[in-house]
Amino acid sequence: MSAKLSDVAKLAEVSTATVSRVLNKSGYVSKKSREKVMLAVEELEYKPSKVASFLASRKLAFNIGIVAGKRLFRVLSDQSDQFYTIVLKGIEEFFAGNNMRGSLVPSNDFSEDYDGYLLIGGEITEEDIKKAKETKKPVVLIDQYLAGVKVDCVVSDGYDGAIYGMKKLISKGLKKIVNIHGPLSHFGFKDRFDGYISAMEGAGYLPKAYEYDEDNDNMSAIIDLLLSRYGLPDAVFGCNDTAAIRAMEELQARGIKIPEEVSILGFDDIVNSSATTPSLTTFKIFKHEMGVVGSRRLQSLLIGNEPRPTKISLFTEFVQRESTL
């Protein structure tokens, strides 16, 4: 077990405040006490926390720009989004305990007044990242990854989740599984879509996918097209819970029983997913943790710790409810 500041103080027979002053080179400490502290540090092989030392020496909080695209900025401003509102709470809780403060700003506001940036959501583009990097400040993406753009990011592992979900459905004898996804420019949707395709092709079944426009809600047209061109599917896999719930509503409106005739699987585990009838089987994304992990990574970059870009991927958790067999 590594030594703590209190261990150094005990061995040197001084207060922890004295040890802190010696290590931070701040305030008066007698030559004798300083020597005793340094000998104790050497004997115990004490390694002070870079984060703690930096924050202790910094009088002002880090000022962070929390950047969102146009649509997400709007829904986060009124707290109506069931996914990113929770991500934002994780960010705010980390900031509160770590001498950081954040301001929600639109993606056209990259003021050099900020010490660093958290860019959140699938609307974030390469151009946004370029503008953020031009400020020479640290940047971390949350719930977005752009191939070939080497920037720190925190995402959920939708590919793994989709593979797991398809195997679950296929194990129940379901073969005609349709995917309904959002824009594939969003990493989360693309990752889940790729997992779906891989699992279906790996099992020898034909993938079938439709793109859902959440803003204009084209689900009724999708279901009509699906039923007329493909017939009744065994299951529908929505790349988020909103798509899955809307698909379930449109199928039920046409007299189709869930899950007896069609199983429905979602992704995200938003608040509404447990309130549907039947309740929605889905994958839980650890949204709060995404906010915390992204914030901690930005903090490391701000103090010059572990500067190489890193992609952090959080596994999801399958939540069995009533909408699948």
Give structural notes.
By secondary structure, the protein is an alpha/beta fold. It has 12 helices and 12 strands. The chain is elongated, with a radius of gyration of 25 Å. The chain starts with a helix and ends in a 6-residue tail after the last strand.
In short:
The protein has 325 residues and is an alpha/beta fold.
Q: Which helices and strands occur, and which strands form pairs?
A:
Elements: H1 5-12, H2 16-24, H3 31-44, H4 50-57, E1 62-68, H5 70-77, H6 84-96, E2 100-106, E3 116-120, H7 126-134, E4 139-142, E5 152-156, H8 158-171, E6 177-181, H9 187-202, E7 208-211, H10 219-229, E8 235-238, H11 241-253, E9 263-265, E10 282-284, H12 287-302, E11 311-314, E12 317-319
Parallel strand pairs: 1-2, 1-3, 3-4, 4-5, 5-11, 6-7, 6-8, 8-9
Antiparallel strand pairs: 10-12
Helix pairs in contact: 1-2, 1-3, 6-12, 8-9
